[in-house]
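Input record (Table S2, row 413):
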Amino acid sequence: MNQTAVADLAPQRAMPAPNVPIVNIDPYSEEVLTDPYGYYEQLRDAGPLVWLKEYETYAVARHEAVTRVLTDPKTYCSSAGVGLTNFHTEKPWRKPSIILEVDPPEHSRTRKVFVRILSPRALNKLRERFEREAEAMVLRLIEKGEYDGVTELAEAYPLKVFADAVGVPPDGRQHLLPYGDMVFNAFGPMNERFKQCFAKLGPSIEWINMACQRENLTKDGFGADLYAAADAGELTHEEAGLLVRTMLSAGLDTTIYTIGNALACFARHPDQWKIVTENPGLARQAIEEVLRYESTFHSFYRTTTQPTTLENVALDAEQKILVVVASANRDPRHWQNADSFDVTRKATSNMAFGTGIHGCAGQMIARLEGEIILKALATHVDKIELLGKPHLHFNNTVRGYSSLPIRVTAKKH
Ligand code: OVV
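Output record (3-methylbenzoic acid complex):
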């Protein structure tokens, strides 16, 4: 092999554009994950587009720049993966998602079916069942008084109602949690956290693959709806199974951490909880503010499809850009009193669900679960108190707690 051929094969070191601010922050370190918001402020203040030295990648952390990248999928694509791994040059840990890690026109076809199955009409049919389950769970926990807000409520509720709605078997649902943890770690670097999570996965991957098969799904869930769309010729049957996998990948950790984050927010801000208990109808707006203030999803990537200019910086093709949605949600350029938790605020332009053609396809059912749990709590619970230090669960992409010791006191009716 001659010299030139060797040089061609060597991994290319990515170089920052000459005029881009270089930032030395590791968004995946425990230090940042413990309390990210000060670091996000540094990212935003360094410039609208920055270079992350540690990962040799660009990043956007302001609301405006995040919006710009997410609303231009032709220039900033998803088909190279929405993690740090570039699928054009590196092998993904699993078969890519056919809705998340794909661009139009392929994306449009799968997304259309997915969105129809999760339409407001379909969700209306679930509301009563979701409310009954929330009411029963909350009343049981009030009876108990002191409990772990994560395992006994935040995990228990989606593992029951969402998994039922998809139609997966009741036995073995605990496999959904390590699997989801893996999915969200895999959007970050292949760090120790990723490796340890992967090593601990065990039989969870097989359980998920089993649960995605038609014969293992109930006849009346979203899973069955996806296979019916395949019968109708809108998808192949293999694609239907992969879209069930999407529901199981994206639908648990996200809502679980959001419910846990809501409990933590309200335990720490009793004045805000008082506002919601006095008017449980505010639950929907309040969950939106929880999502803005403590975004569950923190960041993902896009990849440039061609040379382009972003925020006056010339970018090459195939550049990864970290899109820090959790930082956009705290950007004082967009929000008044960005760092205060205020349930009276209209937080609907928050980026917790992303935006554009890849904006969260499950956001309506996520909001429904959050709203219903919060409303049940606000109807029956006077006070939420922390009994000890909450434990964060560290993940490369999503933020939430692994345990949250709390005491709830019933309202005096
Ligand atoms: C939005 C999201 C998160 C995780 C997994 C997937 C999607 C998927 O499509 O598998």
